[in-house]
Amino acid sequence: MRVNQTTNPNLRDTEAQRQDILRLFGGADLHVGEHLRFYGELAHGTLEGQNLGTALPNLRNKLAVQQAFVDLTGTVADVDVGVRYGRQTFADGPNLLVVPRDNNTLFFGFNGFRAWARTAGIRADVFDFKPTAYGNGGTQDDNAESARRFSGISTGIVVPETLFGGSKLYVDPFLWRLRNRSAVWGTENAREVRNFYGLHVWGDAGPVNLDWTINYQGGSYDNRSIKAWLILLAQTYKLGEGKSAPRVGFHADYASGGGAYGNGTLRNSLAPFGNNIYYSYQLFATPTNLVALAPNVTFSVFDKLRLTAEYQRSWRDTTSDAVYRANGSAFAGTQNFGGKKIADTLRFQAVYPFTSRLSFTGRYEHLIAGPALTNAGYKNSDFLAGWISYRF
């Protein structure tokens, strides 16, 4: 159960938006012998409030099949293997590129298959998916999208713990392809085939936690070549021992931009199904034509209360292209005005676990629009949210 309050929604000088959100879901897990598993999950999403506009079915939905799959697993020559078919969530990759998107009322899901092979030190996952297109009625109108198809291979290598003084690090190369029959860049709507060649390094090296991604994107859009880069570098340093020790850190991110409004090479990067709130709780930013730098600190007070504060500065990679929202759409007109600076963003989060199953989360964000937005008539915005989660 969550309440979101956003001033100047869409960064326009308008009435504040309030979203009252309720997510209910439950699943059933059936194991038939050692190798066969069936899993199903139904979800209900409620959205009420003020100034809501048109509610998308992933925010308001009477009843949806969120997951429904079958697993077949086994061991071959000391290698754990398996295949999963059906509707499922998927998060095998960097958080900013592929994640179930907890900010939605219903989780983002896929339809298709994934297969895996794993040993103690190496793994590989192969998948071929179509995203779930929710209807807002019952369970009969939730279908696999026909326009988009996401496939590829994600691998993982465990770095020996003896390196870096006792590390728990993982190196995950990945190769993905996203095909979209109706991709929108600038004023064009056309077929896009985008390939993702990436490397994800994450884990702990002593007191340092790392989450680094380097990703080159190639392919074609409307017979134009794609050449884009994503470089996402997040790290924190633990000050002391124990789980509650404070951490200081920063993330520095580069998402190339350019070419959406014009001809020639398309240089706008794309995070296909990533964590939409990472750059803006209000969903006003995404790693497309974006450069961001954000120091942060996390610490505990009153034993259980965990607080995080972050100050993010954001710029455009190129002023000849637009500023982009989390859903990939451009802020209209921003491509026609100068101004490198997108925004300064102050963010705060508090998490308090009452029990192992019941917790409260509060978030606040103040976005100070920079010239890249204000020159096109966009405004500052505040976001405030609080919610209670109960898992049983």
Give short descriptive properties of this protein.
single chain; globular; mainly beta; 392 residues; 1 helix; 18-stranded antiparallel barrel
Brief write-up:
With 392 residues, the protein is mainly β. The chain has one helix spanning 371-374, and strands at residues 2-6, 17-32, 36-50, 61-76, 79-88, 110-118, 122-133, 143-144, 148-158, 167-185, 188-205, 208-221, 224-238, 247-255, 290-301, 305-315, 341-353, 358-369, 381-390.
List the topology elements.
Layout: E1 2-6, E2 17-32, E3 36-50, E4 61-76, E5 79-88, E6 110-118, E7 122-133, E8 143-144, E9 148-158, E10 167-185, E11 188-205, E12 208-221, E13 224-238, E14 247-255, E15 290-301, E16 305-315, E17 341-353, E18 358-369, H1 371-374, E19 381-390
Antiparallel strand pairs: 1-2, 1-19, 2-3, 3-4, 4-5, 5-6, 6-7, 7-8, 7-9, 9-10, 10-11, 11-12, 12-13, 13-14, 14-15, 15-16, 16-17, 17-18, 18-19
